[in-house]
Design goal:
165 residues, alpha+beta, Beta-lactamase Inhibitory Protein, Chain:B, domain 1, four-stranded antiparallel sheet, 8 strands, 27% helix
Amino acid sequence: MMRCALKLVTTALALVLTACSSVPETVALGTSRADIEQRLGTPTAVHTLPDGTRLQYSRQPSGQQVFNLDLDTQGRLARVDQVLDVEWLQRIEVDRWTQEDVLRQFGRPAVVERVARFDGGVWTYRYLEPFSLARLVHIHIDTRGVVRKVVYTDEPLLDDIGNRF
């Protein structure tokens, strides 16, 4: 009985440690790119920055987080940010940001759609507001690749979808 309990505790501890090793926000500053990729896997996107490189780990389309791990010119981790939150989303500059700015900051969207009264695409990202309120941000990008509008909505719950009239 004691051996079974010890084996169960050991297995649970191994699972916790494995899960923690794949969490971007736990990577120590100064970690090399090779060590980051060994720990977290291949990034969902890589972007060149003026002063280094950004490794992007997105949990879109089903997740609600995007982690930007910025490396300095020596390829060492200088900064980690989870950017799908209100503070970061409010930095989008309508009529100034381009499609490339959005990709560099937030990665690929969960959904790209077209709507009748806008000549371009609507990029939708899933994110959480404080207290785990599921939200969507819809970034309207015109045919020239310029952000023209940003709209926030609640993410429909399963009950909402099933009970529509």
